[in-house]
Amino acid sequence: MCGIVGYIGEKDASQVLVKGLKRLEYRGYDSAGVALMNGKMMIEKGKGKVSNLEKKIDTKKLIAKIGIGHTRWATHGEPNDINSHPHVSESGNIAVVHNGIIENYNSLKKKLELRGRTFKSATDTEIIAQLLEEIYTTTKGITFEQAIQLTLKQIVGTYGIAVVSLDQQDKVYVARKGSPLLLGIGDNEMFIASDASPIVEYTNKVIYLDDGEMAVVTKDSYKVKTIEDVELTKEIHELEMGLEAIEKAGYPHFMLKEIFEQPRSIGDCMRGRINPEEGTIQLGGLRDVMDELVNAKRIVIAACGTSWHSALVGEYIFEYLARTPVEVEYASEFRYRDPLIGKGDVLLVISQSGETADTLAALREAKERGALVLGICNVVGSTISRETDAGVFTHAGPEIGVASTKAFTAQVVVLIMMAIKIAMEKGEITKKKAKKLIQELDSIPEKVDQILQECDEPIQKIAKMFTYAPNFLYLGRSYNFPVALEGALKLKEISYIHAEGYPAAEMKHGPIALIDEMMPVVVIAATKHTNDKTISNIEEVKARKGRILSVMNDDNKDVKELSEFSIQIPTTKDYFSPLLTVIPLQLLSYYIAVNRGCNVDQPRNLAKSVTVE
Ligand code: G6P
Question: For the chain, what is the domain count?
Answer without folding.
Answer: 3
